[in-house]
Amino acid sequence: MDCELPLHAHRSSFIVQDMKPKLKEHVSSKEKKQPYVNRMFETIAPRYDFITRFLSYGMDRGWKRKLVDTFDFKGGEHALDLACGTGDITFALAKRLTSGQAVGLDITQGMLDIAERKRSEMNIGNVSFHRADILSIPFADATFDCVTAGYALRNVPDLEAALAEIMRVLKPGGRFCSLDFGHPPNKLYRWLYLNYLIVVGSTLGLALHGDPDTYRYIPESLKLYPGQRGVRDMMQRAGFIDADFREFGGGIMSLNYGTKPR
Ligand SMILES: C[S@@+](CC[C@H](N)C(=O)[O-])C[C@H]1O[C@@H](n2cnc3c(N)ncnc32)[C@H](O)[C@@H]1O
After folding, report:
1. How far apart are CA 99 and CA 89, in angstroms?
2. Ligand 1: which residue has its CA nearest to atom 1?
3. CA of 105 to the centre of ligand 1 (A)
4. Which residue's C-alpha comes closest to atom 9 of ligand 1?
5. Domain ranges of the chain
6. How many A from CA of 108 to the centre of ligand 1?
């Protein structure tokens, strides 16, 4: 008995330790991050909606509503939802656009299949989905009045290139808004929050997919993400005017927004 528990504890910590370099190595590499992200989202696609509600204690819907509410739609706009996943934000945009169009773009086919199924169930006409990379958006310059990104910027291997692409496809005067996990300014709160994500993410990943790294990706990618203040500064450097942010829950979640100059 005496030796069994320590051995078991040693084994599981060995598994976690052993996976650590793999996750970190991929998330911090410009070349390896995207293939890693693609594989991960293909794996979690069927459970994505459930996991998102579960991990956010149901608050995800409210945060997405706040994102869509940052736009003052007249009804005829063209909106692009980057990294649309299963389509929550794309559908919310489409509902606000009476004569306009909402376009969802994502790199993962499994996520798009679910979005497409929802679209036909809801019978919404002014929505279309496309498989593509944020770093190479398959639309002409100045096509969209509004661009959104829900939990997207943290996933791209080159954030500056992503902001340049967003700027390119926006019409002059068009607005961009991104929702993502944030960096709480209070250091202790930030440490607690990251460690909470590590513990919950590892447990959930192990329970649902047999791999603790599946949801530990969130805190690992967040550590390397510049956060709401860093993204605001990058947006200013990329040429957005009025670039700023709003944060919720003491900074655990944030909206970054800005406008393309006319
Ligand atoms: C956390 S999910 C967010 C989904 C959705 N926006 C939402 O808020 O529920 C992140 C999405 O980003 C997509 N993604 C990651 N890298 C991408 C890229 N380079 N181009 C397009 N989509 C990407 C993934 O396939 C995944 O669907």
Report:
1. 17
2. 151
3. 8
4. 85
5. 5-259
6. 7
**pLDDT category, 2, cuts 50, 70, 90?**
very low
Question: Using a 6 Å cutoff on CB, does residue 106 contact ligand 1?
Answer: yes
Return the pLDDT at 205: 87
Q: Is the pLDDT assigned to residue 14 strictly greater than 80?
A: no
Q: How confident is the model at residue 16 (pLDDT cuts 50, 70, 90)?
A: very low
Note the CATH number of domain 5-259. Answer: 3.40.50.150
Give 56 Cα–ligand 1 centroid separation in angstroms.
17
Nearest CA, atom 13, ligand 1: 83
State if residue 41 touches ligand 1 by the CB under 6 angstroms criterion.
yes
pLDDT attached to residue 17: 42
Closest to 262 measured CA to CA, from 241, 233, 235: 241
CB of 194 sitting under 6 A from ligand 1: no
Task: Give yes or no for residue 83 CB within 6 A of ligand 1.
Answer: yes
What pLDDT sits at residue 32? 86
Comparing CA positions, the residue from 188, 197, 179, 194 lying closest to residue 67 is 179
110-135 confidence digits (pLDDT tens): 999 999 999 999 989 999 999 999 99
Nearest-CA residue for ligand 1 atom 25 is 108
Instruction: Mention every residue, 6+ apart, whose C-beta is less than 8 A from residue 261.
Output: 172, 173, 239, 241
* pLDDT tens, residue by residue, 70-116: 999 998 999 999 999 999 999 999 999 989 999 999 999 999 999 99
